[in-house]
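Postdoc handover notes: sequence design on the structure in folder B. Input tokens:
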């Protein structure tokens, strides 16, 4: 092979040189051969990468192959299809959550609504609010009376069975007797006008009554300040006076005990326990067969459940008779002792403390009743 020279600097190029050793130019760009037979094809130089960016490349190099790209529109379509697929799968597993199909189209939404015109899968009352079915209530009591107060006219003809407290004395107009009461005495709300017979004239302000009757609708009136007030109007077929406790803390559970326990000639009979939401009412009879005056010590009496103690209460508004403080030999007393409320699903004890004698009285062991659920 003939000699080759760099056309840039004139330096002699050796066989196999890719770059000029003098100026650094690529040999295939600057080489000049002395003889025709030396004019041979020179392979292109390699491509080097610095930090991922090419410094140089042969002009004849093929353009790099680009990776296929997904357009934003295609990406959004794929996401939407995936979400729809998840909703469909959920609907198949829980028909009460996804709208069903049928009729004129598919039920729209995941809450069971059928805006698309189709039937809603599941039971008839799925997706419906309480208001849609409030009109189906047959009897209104303390538990659901708020629904009646909100829309009295919508429930005309429904029954009422509720305990309330009179705001004032009943009034008589001809053959009609009417009075106003709070159907929720604890909060002094849910004003109700009751039409009753003449037997209700014996009632007085603040009395508690149980009213059974029929809803007439809503009554509007004017108060002493000229403002408009509304109330539920009820036509009562039965009105009976009840103790305050039945309005303030109605009995939720009754435990029949019927046991008598004695200690040194003093005995206590526990007839029953009435448990309300707040208190426990113990109906007792105490009898003294000893030689000295004895009495129940209500302030030391209590209900014991585990490590908890529920002491004696004295709600003044209950107006329930308590046992007498002193019981002479041969006498007895009865009444209601009120305690806090234990958990009726767990065992507990009712402990009655008592004393014997007058000043510096003896304090024997209490009389205890074991109560099991």
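Designed sequence:
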């Amino acid at each position: 092979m003939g000699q080759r020279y760099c056309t840039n600097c004139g330096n002699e190029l050796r066989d196999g040189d890719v770059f000029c050793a003098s100026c650094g130019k690529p040999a295939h760009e600057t080489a000049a051969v002395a003889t025709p037979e030396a004019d041979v094809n020179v392979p292109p130089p390699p491509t080097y990468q610095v930090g991922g960016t090419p410094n140089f490349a042969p002009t004849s190099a093929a353009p790099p192959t680009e990776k296929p790209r997904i357009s934003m529109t295609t990406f959004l379509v794929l996401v939407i299809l995936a979400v729809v697929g998840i909703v469909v799968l959920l609907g198949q597993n829980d028909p009460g959550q996804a709208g069903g199909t049928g009729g004129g189209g598919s039920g729209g939404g995941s809450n069971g609504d059928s805006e698309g015109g189709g039937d809603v899968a599941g039971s008839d009352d799925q997706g419906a609010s309480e208001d849609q079915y409030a009109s189906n209530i047959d009897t209104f009591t303390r538990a659901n009376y708020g629904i009646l107060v909100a829309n009295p006219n919508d429930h005309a003809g429904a029954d009422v069975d509720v305990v309330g407290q009179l705001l004032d004395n009943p009034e008589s107009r001809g053959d009609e007797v009417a009075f106003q009461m709070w159907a929720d005495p604890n909060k002094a709300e849910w004003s109700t006008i009751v039409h009753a017979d003449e037997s209700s004239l014996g009632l007085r302000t603040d009395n508690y009554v149980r009213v059974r009757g029929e809803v007439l609708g809503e009554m509007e009136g004017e108060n002493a300040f000229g403002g408009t007030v509304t109330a539920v109007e009820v036509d009562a077929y039965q009105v009976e006076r009840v103790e305050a406790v039945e309005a303030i803390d109605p009995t939720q559970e009754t435990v029949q005990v019927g046991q008598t326990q004695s200690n040194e000639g003093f005995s206590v009979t526990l007839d029953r326990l009435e448990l309300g939401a707040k208190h426990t009412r113990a109906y007792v009879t105490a009898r003294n067969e000893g030689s000295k005056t004895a009495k129940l010590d209500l302030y030391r009496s209590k209900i014991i459940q585990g490590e908890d103690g529920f002491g004696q209460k004295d709600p003044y508004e209950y107006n329930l008779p308590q046992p007498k403080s002193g019981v002479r030999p041969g006498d007895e007393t009865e009444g209601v002792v009120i305690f806090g409320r234990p958990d009726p699903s767990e065992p507990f004890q009712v402990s009655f403390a008592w004393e014997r004698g007058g000043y510096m009285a003896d304090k024997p062991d209490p009389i205890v009743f074991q109560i099991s659920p």
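Context for whoever picks this up: The chain has four domains: 4-54, 74-121, 139-242, 253-371. Don't rerun without checking with the PI first.
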